[in-house]
């Protein structure tokens, strides 16, 4: 196993900053390791998921639940690889790419992940902006602009310690989960329909159907919104926040084991939230897909008895907007952290932390502001843009999966912690299948 080449640690201000108890019970040790998985999980329930999942349910009822399930299983596999890479090599995925791949390929991958970060931030900024607009009645452009303050909130939180960020994120996740569980229970979904929906159906890959609301487009949108490229970079970095004794193989093994527990527990919560989103669309909005293509339309639909039936009320709309704001804020925190990880890892920049975060945020805000200025209050345009941003994330995903699987399958890099052969084959198979489906999607769209 190689030792780290760069003296610069990933997210150096919090790297190895959280102590882990020695000779403690399973639950005490798990408690110390629980946290990074929550930051990873928020990327799997960000505002980008909302449009694709709810519209998917409203259009095809429970059919695409199987896509949510498969996406979540893929996510668990890939995030375990990413976290393991960070712990074992003491490099994040961006640093590993810079260290082990040719220069031209490194810069190409940097451009792809930067575009993916912009697509991710697009959904987060739009989601937060629209939530503020719906809750407080502020102009949409002002609501989007005010999201730049998120960066400074994050800087303040970082000074309080990484545990405080993990606690905040976990609280916001709990808020989203409780609100959507309540909304779904009110909608009285079909239990048998849900169970049947988790069984994959060949009709999802319909080669004769195209368009933004086709089964394949929404399925790939769900995959792109669920398995997020930037999360692989994020997890490979924040998995290093726990102190590990690198002179002891058993200490490294323990860190990898409990990182896996943390990741899988938190991603199971994300799977439940994504399922609830699609179930809500199926049970409450089925047959009204054209009426809920935008966040504001969903907000209005929840208080329209002609669409939501007897459960419609202003209180439900407010809860929806609160959950949307919580989702946007959560994803903003992790998106900003990933922006720093990618810039420092790929380009080996040594700029002040606040400057890197501010620059990455402004770069991501630029396209949103241009579109908001061009289309003003036409929220449907922004919401439609979110769907296409999630499809782009699906297109970008293989460019993150292939390097990750390659690094974690290389014994020179990973030593005794190299992937098992079946795990590597499965990882490559996922990337290949996604690439083929994405080529089909590109042909359809253009």
UniProtKB/TrEMBL annotation:
NCBIfam families: nramp (TIGR01197), Nramp_1 (NF037982), PRK00701.1 (NF001923). It comes from Streptococcus equinus JB1. Signal peptide: none annotated. The chain crosses the membrane at residues 50-75, 107-130, 136-155, 167-185, 216-234, 267-287, 307-326, 354-375, 387-405, 425-443. Its main location: membrane. GO terms for biological process: iron ion transmembrane transport. Belongs to the NRAMP family. One of its GO terms (molecular function) is metal ion binding. The keyword Lipoprotein does not apply. InterPro entries: NRAMP_fam. It comes from the Bacteria. GO terms for cellular component: plasma membrane. This is Divalent metal cation transporter MntH. It is a multi-pass membrane protein. Keywords: Cell membrane, Ion transport, Membrane, Symport, Transmembrane, Transmembrane helix, Transport. It holds the Pfam family Nramp. H(+)-stimulated, divalent metal cation uptake system. It is found in: Cell membrane; Membrane.
């Amino acid at each position: 196993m190689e030792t780290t080449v760069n003296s610069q640690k990933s997210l150096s201000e919090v790297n190895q900053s959280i102590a882990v108890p020695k000779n403690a019970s399973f639950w005490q040790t798990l408690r110390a390791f629980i946290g990074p998985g929550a930051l990873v999980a928020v990327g799997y329930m960000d505002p980008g998921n909302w449009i694709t999942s709810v519209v998917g349910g409203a259009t095809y009822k429970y059919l695409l639940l199987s896509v949510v399930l498969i996406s979540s299983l893929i996510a668990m596999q890939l995030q375990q690889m990413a976290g393991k890479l960070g712990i074992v090599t003491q490099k994040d995925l961006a640093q590993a790419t810079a260290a082990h791949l040719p220069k031209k390929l490194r810069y190409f991958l940097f451009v792809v992940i930067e575009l993916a970060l912009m697509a991710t931030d697009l959904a987060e900024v739009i989601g937060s902006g629209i939530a503020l607009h719906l809750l407080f009645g502020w102009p949409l452009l002002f609501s989007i602009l005010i999201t730049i303050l998120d960066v400074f909130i994050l800087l303040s939180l970082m000074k309080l310690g990484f545990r405080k960020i993990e606690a905040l994120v976990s609280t916001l996740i709990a808020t989203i989960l409780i609100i959507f569980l309540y909304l779904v229970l009110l909608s009285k979904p079909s239990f048998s329909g849900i169970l049947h929906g988790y069984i994959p159906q060949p009709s999802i890959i319909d080669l004769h159907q195209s368009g933004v609301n086709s089964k394949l487009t929404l399925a790939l949108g769900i995959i792109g919104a669920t398995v997020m490229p930037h999360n692989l970079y994020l997890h490979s970095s924040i998995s290093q926040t726990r102190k590990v004794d690198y002179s002891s193989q058993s200490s490294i093994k323990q860190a990898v084991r409990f990182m896996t527990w943390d990741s899988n527990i938190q991603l199971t919560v994300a799977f439940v939230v994504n399922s609830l989103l699609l179930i809500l669309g199926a049970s409450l909005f089925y047959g009204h897909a054209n009426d809920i293509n935008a966040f504001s339309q969903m907000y209005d639909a929840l208080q329209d008895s002609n669409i939501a039936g007897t459960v419609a009320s202003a209180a439900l709309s407010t809860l929806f907007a609160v959950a949307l704001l919580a989702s946007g804020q959560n994803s903003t925190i992790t998106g900003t952290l990933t922006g720093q990880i990618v810039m420092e890892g790929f380009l080996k920049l040594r700029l002040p932390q606040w400057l890197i975060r501010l620059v990455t945020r402004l770069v991501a805000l630029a396209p949103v502001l241009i579109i908001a200025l061009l289309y003003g209050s036409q929220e449907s345009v922004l919401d439609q843009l979110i769907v296409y941003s999630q499809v782009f994330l699906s297109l970008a995903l293989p460019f993150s999966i292939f390097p990750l699987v390659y690094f974690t399958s290389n014994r020179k890099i990973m030593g005794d912690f190299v992937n098992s052969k079946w795990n590597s084959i499965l990882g490559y198979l996922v990337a290949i299948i996604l690439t083929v489906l994405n080529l089909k999607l590109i042909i359809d769209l253009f």
